[in-house]
Write a structure and sequence with these properties.
mainly alpha, 2 strands
């Protein structure tokens, strides 16, 4: 039933024989947006000019441009997200390390502690 399908490992889908779409971040979305971009560009040019060969050429170019454009955009956002995660993890680690010590920035110093230092 519902739990039976979970035990089987998923088969990976490789695009062009080497790009594993399920394990590479942003690959699936890039291919999907690229295909939509090629459809829009190719069909739009065909409806405007009725030239089949030129429309197919533009559709391929639209696929490549849209896919690469979204790939770089997605990878940039993923890198920014990972940097923020790393900074948060380091901040949490420092908070745990310095909590309750004299180096704790959130600890309020009383008048007697200020005169000692």
């Amino acid at each position: 039933m519902a739990g039976e399908g979970d035990s089987e490992p998923r088969k990976s889908f490789k695009l062009l024989g080497f790009l594993d779409v399920q394990s590479v971040p942003c690959a699936r979305e890039s291919v999907l947006y690229g295909s939509v971009g090629s459809l829009v560009v190719g069909l739009g040019h065909f409806l405007a000019t009725s030239r089949v060969r030129r429309s197919c050429d533009l559709a391929v170019g639209g696929f490549i441009c849209t896919m690469l454009g979204y790939w770089f955009y997605c990878r940039y956002n993923l890198a920014q997200h990972r940097i923020q995660q790393r900074m948060l993890k380091e901040g949490m680690r420092n908070k745990i390390l310095f909590e309750g010590s004299s180096l704790d920035p959130e600890r309020k110093q009383t008048g007697s502690e200020r005169s000692d230092s």
